[in-house]
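name: query_chain
kind: protein
chains: 1
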Amino acid sequence: MFGFRSIITIFIFSSFLFYGQFLSSKRNRYFNFEQEFILEHLPPVTFNFVKKDNLSGSKGSFFHFWATWCGPCEKELPEFIKFIDSFNGKFKGVLVASKDEKSKVVRYLKRFNLGTNFIIAHDPNGELLKNFGSLRVPETFLFDSNGLFFKKYVGPQDWLNPFFFQNTNFLFN
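structure:
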């Protein structure tokens, strides 16, 4: 039946299995995954920076946090602008300049022909960024027309990749 080797193999396998479970439970207690902040709706403080009426008339809003001092943000922003414009007004792009000087933001955005698809918000102290549960840029949050959270994009994205068009259309159809 079972030889000595089989018993040793089962013992070693069981030890690894139990040790893995122990580490997993320890990690979950340490990082407290169950109570981690999860954004469900637009934070109320948002409307200190953006008028609620400016968000109406669209299927949803992309809140894009960026800064002029952030190299990846500067590289990504032109693609993000083209991405939002490609939806012909279905979505609003809220460009939130976080932890930045207003004069630099205005000077930088003059390069682009921003139409009615965009709202500019200035978050000089990063207050809005913190209320979204983040501390870094670039990050983008997608909400529906009722302010319900749909998706978070961390770091710079390739906004002109067909995946983003398809994914956004899929979420809102």
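note: Residues 44-171 form a domain with the Glutaredoxin fold (CATH 3.40.30.10).
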